[in-house]
Amino acid sequence: MSRHVETPPEVGRTDAGLAVITVRYAGDEQRLLADGAVTERENEAWPDGLLSWSLFSSTDGASLMAYEQWTGDEALDRALAGSAPYLPGISSTEPAVPVRYRLHRSHVTTADRTGVAVGCVVTPVFEAEGPERQRHFVDEVFSMTKDVAPMPGSIAAHFHLSTDGTRVFNYAEWTDEQAHLDAVTAPRGEHVRRRVSGDIPGVRPCGYQRWHLHSALVAE
């Protein structure tokens, strides 16, 4: 069983041992596909071990992202191998092998989050040459930014590592889209981005997208 909630996922929840992140291009059918995916997810059996399923729409109107939290690999494997196999991600879009991630490190930039709502999620993605490069990259980002004052509107950054060692996914929470747009054009932000993008061997930036929550379900 599942129920609707009005807020994005609690990324750092301690019972979530695995995240499955799916991004799909939707084009002009973004809203139609999103509504259909939510309806299908509501009507199907909710697998044991699935903690939450959150669907996001990109602010450019072209893509969808599903962020799923599971208790761990075993729960997902059971759901995939069931008599009515669970299909992770976004229904009615091209199926694919789910990309598994684990939350590695988080940095909360807003000390007191009481009353601070996440109005926009930004997801920079990086390709990495193996697990060692993944971890080194995140550690270097933390080192580079430790003395940099938080940008207005930044709430938190949650760095996920793909279990196959090839990707780093930053799930960054912001108060709103404009706050991130302002940060992108700020001089101090540009300096950090240049260092992150060019100074860490074995890692290649793949761009980012901005998202608004479309709908979210959690285990009952």
The CATH topology of the largest domain is: Alpha-Beta Plaits
**Given the structure, what is the number of helices?**
5
Order of strands, widest sheet: 2-4-3-11-6-9-8-5
Low-confidence stretches: none
Write down the secondary-structure element order. EEHEEHEEEHEEHHEE
Q: What would CATH call the class of the largest domain?
A: Alpha Beta
What proportion strand? 25-35%
Architecture of the largest domain, CATH level 2? 2-Layer Sandwich
- The tally of structural domains comes to 2
Overall strand count: 11
Mean pLDDT: 90
Specify the helix fraction band: 25-40%
Largest sheet: 8 strands, antiparallel, barrel
The gross shape turns out to be globular
Alpha-beta classification: alpha+beta
Q: Supply Rg.
A: 17 Å
- The first-to-last residue Cα distance is 5 Å
Q: How would you describe this structure to a colleague?
A:
The protein is α+β, with helices and mostly antiparallel strands and 220 residues long. It has two domains: 2-101 and 213-219, 2-Layer Sandwich (Alpha-Beta Plaits), CATH 3.30.70; 103-210, Alpha-Beta Plaits (2-Layer Sandwich). Helices cover 26% and strands 34% of the residues. It has five helices and eleven strands, in the order ββαββαβββαββααββ. An eight-stranded antiparallel barrel has the order 2-4-3-11-6-9-8-5, surrounded by four helices. It is globular, with a radius of gyration of 17 Å. The relative contact order is 0.23. The model has no long low-confidence stretch (mean pLDDT 90).
